[in-house]
Every structure is written in structure tokens, then in C-alpha cells.
Specification:
Number of helices: 1
Low-confidence stretches: none
Structural class: alpha+beta
Order of helices and strands: HEEEEEEEEE
Strand order of the largest sheet: 2-9-8-4-6
CATH topology of the largest domain: Immunoglobulin-like
């Protein structure tokens, strides 16, 4: 009888030890999971803030167009082997409509600059009425992966005489920032 009672107490102690270990492991995993989720949301929040700030910068540049050729942003910053978008805006300050197209030339072979409407280095032709604007998306992609400063040269074909029809957009290739 005494032996039987000792076995029951030993079983009860083993059961309570197992329960305590399971609870401790569960709480540890819960804390690690919450920390992981919090870290992800913090980083995603930072990405969202950065993206919205970049969009605001591009939109502000479109509002302040008062020259024949405007590139927004004025300096592109791209992470290594990533891409970015700039906006080329042409404002017709002439009394008549003008017909233009755009051409872009990368400053080095490690960068790709293409227009969104054609996926080439030359855009389609557009007719712009007097006082109106035409915006073109310029996609810039780093192919090389080296940290450096380079550029894309944009020229507007068909610009009226006396207008500055060429602009260079400086591009800074910066260190890649990992998400995790």
C-alpha cells in the first residue's frame, strides 16, 4: 500500500514537472512569435513611410512645372541591383501645339534607362497643346551592382528653338538595405 502511494506521488510530481515545462516552452514561443511579428510590422511600416514620402516628392515636382523640361526627382537614389522611376515632364510654353519624342542615353553600361511607354530608350511621339504638359515615366535599373554615381541623359526631340531640350538626371547607387 505504501509502495502504491509513492508511485502515485511520483507520477503526480512528474506530471506537474511536464506541465511546467510545457507552459514555459509555450510562453517562450509566444514571446518569440510576438517579437518576430512586431519586427516585421516595424520594418514594413518603415517601407511604407519611405514609399509615401517618395510619392509625395514626385507629386510635388509635377505641381511645380514651369520649365520646358522637368525631371522629378532631380537626383535618383537606387539600391544596388534595384530599380526606380523618375518622371519626365514636358511643358509646352509655345502658342501652337508641338510634336515631341524623348530619347535617353545611360552614362555607363551598368545602368539601364528606358521609357515606360515603349520599354526602349526612345519614347513614342506626342502632340502637346499650348500650355499643356506631357509626363513620361523613366525606369532606371542598376545592372552592375557597384556603389557609384552615374547618370541618364534625356533629350527631347522636336523641342521649339530656344528651349533647353536636354537634361541629365544624376543617379546614386547606394548599398542594398535588407528587409530582414
Amino acid at each position: 500500500m505504501l509502495n502504491n502511494m509513492l508511485k502515485k506521488k511520483k507520477g503526480a510530481i512528474e506530471l506537474s514537472m511536464t506541465t511546467i515545462i510545457v507552459i514555459v516552452m509555450g510562453v517562450t514561443l509566444l514571446i518569440l512569435g510576438i517579437t518576430f511579428v512586431r519586427t516585421i510590422f516595424t520594418k514594413v511600416g518603415g517601407i511604407s513611410k519611405e514609399t509615401f514620402a517618395r510619392a509625395d516628392t514626385l507629386l510635388q515636382g509635377l505641381e511645380n512645372v514651369n520649365e520646358f523640361l522637368t525631371i522629378t526627382p532631380s537626383i535618383a537614389e537606387i539600391e544596388q541591383t534595384k530599380d526606380s522611376v523618375s518622371i519626365i515632364t514636358i511643358l509646352n510654353l509655345q502658342g501652337d501645339s508641338i510634336k515631341i519624342s524623348a530619347e535617353v542615353t545611360p552614362a555607363d553600361k551598368g545602368i539601364e534607362c528606358i521609357f515606360g511607354d515603349t520599354s526602349k530608350t526612345t519614347s513614342d511621339s506626342y502632340t502637346i497643346s499650348s500650355g499643356k504638359t506631357k509626363s513620361l515615366k523613366l525606369f532606371i535599373k542598376d545592372l552592375k551592382g557597384n556603389i557609384r554615381t552615374t547618370a541618364c541623359n534625356v533629350e527631347i526631340i522636336g523641342a521649339p528653338e530656344g528651349e533647353d531640350n536636354a537634361e541629365t538626371i544624376p543617379i546614386r547607387i547606394v548599398k542594398e538595405v535588407s528587409t530582414f
